[in-house]
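re: the backbone from monday

yeah here it is again, tokenized this time
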């Protein structure tokens, strides 16, 4: 490198131009402005057609090539090339200038020859670009003239390169300091924003407010105009858009949108548990086969970043951020958004936990109120009473359908015990550990029935001062019993049909569907098929309810159950009002068995309760006078409807015959899980004692008299 020069070898014009170049380029601190200045003033001191500035970092083995004065190619970064494949590497290594013809370039530097030939280069001169502190690279002058550079030109180019090297080194240091300051400022902004997001995340229990507050920060720092929170729903195994913030105000990408696990946009980040970015070209390609990407693209989003939300090692959703411009998300943007996603994950996890706790608390309060109402009500039975063949057939149907989780329609006259059958189905099913919710559709006014079934939001109608959970939500994972289903209004039947088919309901005043898993048991004493013919009941709802119909025969068709029911009710109400009734006259029992009982078991129960009240001694006195006109007069004249029922003279005789019947049904087995003692609800020793007292002897271990 030349540190001094001979004035005879350098003309005054060149010295004057060199001084001007030095002053000019020294005034530019920014690297881009320096390149523009070099392109403008180097022509004043050196003859060339093209000039190339080569910078090389030996520590990283990275090289940069710049074309001063050429805006379209001014900043073109490559790795190693052209130092390894051009004269610049030799010049940088030996710190000596090099002159080459186009033939030399073709012979020694085949990789750059096509480029030089396209530039019509005939000769080149490459000089080292070096300061007193370090080697920067090389400065290459290209000419379309053959043998364009003389030794004198080379010596002057070295002087020019020395001035350029100092200015380039100063500009690089300035750029590095400025970049460091910018990075510090940006890092400071990022930390401030992250602190604000953290404070918001720990103080917000509503995801809508969280996204609303952080979306402005994301737009300011990452330039993103679109932000959406997508939550994973484990029960449905899909994703649902919960909150969307769009600076354009376009609401076509709305909350409530659902996509499946097969979606290549959302599921990719969810499964891989790392951020995924999509450029405009990738979005355009995916939009051909993906509705979500097509929808986002049509809204003007040109680049997208999808970040997984991970909490306690579980992925609970994703955060999607989008640009309206073609600018892709750089690594720094993705890193910053990942930090924000971490805070959103924490807040979302807390929000979901809080929402679940609130829902469970509301449901628990509703269940408490409901169960308190149920306790206050008077139930007809503690267990099913009867031994008739028709009742056994009903119980066989109950046993068959209990575990199937199918919808059951219970048919029968009023007072036959439809609610008791519904309770038995629930208690025998896998849902017995959850609530059985009862709704009497005939007892609730039509205007309030929809709110009672499906619930309502605060402000849904006049008087709705708070949110209310409906009976379907209350019966989630349990059973809902819709009694008197034939009395449900026609306008509400379509909504009930949807709840049965889709397993989804909507509260009054809300458009958000709620998934419910409740088994439906319906009951009615009305002729639904006739109601369908009269256009009072929807046929599609009837077919949806009539999956497994169970018909409960009226009491008049199974009079053999009346003695068992009478004894049960006598014992129940005698204990309740502290009466000691031990005798039920046979004439009274026969009279009760001959009655038609239009009110069925409910009517019988109320009659026995009245009889216990009026009975003064140990014998039951049944007041038959309040019965329907003509019934009492005909009671003693009518034959028994069921000849198979034996005449009962005493309670002891009835007890003996009942034990015999059970023993025959169990093939004479007394103990064990299938023995008569279990069926009778007695201990084995107690049954054997009764058998001995009643004169029931075992014959060959299986036959009885």
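seq for it, each position gets an aa:
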């Amino acid at each position: 490198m030349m540190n001094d020069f001979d004035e005879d070898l350098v003309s005054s014009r060149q010295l004057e131009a060199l001084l001007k170049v030095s002053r000019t380029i020294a005034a530019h601190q920014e690297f881009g402005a320096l390149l523009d200045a070099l392109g403008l003033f180097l022509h004043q001191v050196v003859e060339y057609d093209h000039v190339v500035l080569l910078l090389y970092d030996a520590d990283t083995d990275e090289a940069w090539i710049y074309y001063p004065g050429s805006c379209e190619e001014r900043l073109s970064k490559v790795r190693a090339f052209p130092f390894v494949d051009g004269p610049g590497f030799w010049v940088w290594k030996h710190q000596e200038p090099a002159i080459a013809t186009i033939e030399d370039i073709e012979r020694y530097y085949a990789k750059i020859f096509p480029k030089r030939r396209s530039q019509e280069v005939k000769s080149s001169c490459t000089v080292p670009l070096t300061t007193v502190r370090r080697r920067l690279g090389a400065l290459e002058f290209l000419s379309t003239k053959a043998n364009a550079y003389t030794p004198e030109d080379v010596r002057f180019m070295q002087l020019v390169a020395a001035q350029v090297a100092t200015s380039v080194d100063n500009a690089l240091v300035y750029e590095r300091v400025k970049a460091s300051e910018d990075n510090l400022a940006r890092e400071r902004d990022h930390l401030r924003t992250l602190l604000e997001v953290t404070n918001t995340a720990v103080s917000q229990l509503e995801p809508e407010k969280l996204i609303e507050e952080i979306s402005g920060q994301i737009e300011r720092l990452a330039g993103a105009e679109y932000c959406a929170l997508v939550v994973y729903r484990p029960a449905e195994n899909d994703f649902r858009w919960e909150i969307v913030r769009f600076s354009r105000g376009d609401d076509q990408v709305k909350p409530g949108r659902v996509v499946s696990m097969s979606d290549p946009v959302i599921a990719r980040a969810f499964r891989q548990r790392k951020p995924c970015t999509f450029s405009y070209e990738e979005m355009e390609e995916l939009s051909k086969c993906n509705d979500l990407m097509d929808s986002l693209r049509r809204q003007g989003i040109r680049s997208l970043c999808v970040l997984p939300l991970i909490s306690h090692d579980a992925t609970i959703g994703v955060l999607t951020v989008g640009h309206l411009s073609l600018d892709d998300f750089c690594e720094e943007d993705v890193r910053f958004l990942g930090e924000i996603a971490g805070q959103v994950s924490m807040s979302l996890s807390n929000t979901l936990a809080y929402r679940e706790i609130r829902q469970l608390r509301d449901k628990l309060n509703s269940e408490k109120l409901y169960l308190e109402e149920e306790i206050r009500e008077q139930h007809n039975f503690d267990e099913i009473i009867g031994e008739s063949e028709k009742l056994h057939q009903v119980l066989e149907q109950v046993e068959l359908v209990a575990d199937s989780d199918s919808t059951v329609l219970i048919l029968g006259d009023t007072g036959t015990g439809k609610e008791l059958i519904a309770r038995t189905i629930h208690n025998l099913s896998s849902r017995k550990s959850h609530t059985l919710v009862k709704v009497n559709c005939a007892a609730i006014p039509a205007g309030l029935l929809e709110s009672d079934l499906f619930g309502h939001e605060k402000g849904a109608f006049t008087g709705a001062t708070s949110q209310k959970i409906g009976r379907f939500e209350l019966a989630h994972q349990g059973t809902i019993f819709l009694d008197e289903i034939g009395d449900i209004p026609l306008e509400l039947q379509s909504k009930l049909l949807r709840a049965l088919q889709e397993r989804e309901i909507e509260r009054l005043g809300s458009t958000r569907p709620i998934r419910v898993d409740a088994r439906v048991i319906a009951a009615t004493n009305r002729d639904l098929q006739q109601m369908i013919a009269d256009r009072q009941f929807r046929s599609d709802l009837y077919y949806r309810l009539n999956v497994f119909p169970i018909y409960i025969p009226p009491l008049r068709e199974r009079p053999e159950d009346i003695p068992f029911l009478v004894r049960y009710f006598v014992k129940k109400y005698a204990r309740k009002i502290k009466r000691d009734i031990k005798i039920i006259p046979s004439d009274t029992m026969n009279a009760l068995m001959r009655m038609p009982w239009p009110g069925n078991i409910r009517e019988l129960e109320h009659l026995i309760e009245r009889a216990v009240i009026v009975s003064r001694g140990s014998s039951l006195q049944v007041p038959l006078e309040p019965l329907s006109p003509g019934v009492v007069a005909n009671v003693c004249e009518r034959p028994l409807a069921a000849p198979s029922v034996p005449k009962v003279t005493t309670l002891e005789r009835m007890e003996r015959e009942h034990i015999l019947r059970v023993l025959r049904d169990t093939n004479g087995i007394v103990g064990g899980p299938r023995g008569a003692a279990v069926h009778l609800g007695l201990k084995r020793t107690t049954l054997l004692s009764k058998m001995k007292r009643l004169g029931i002897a075992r014959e060959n271990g299986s036959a009885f008299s």
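Residues 151-203 form the longest helix (53 residues). The chain is about 45% helix and 15% strand.
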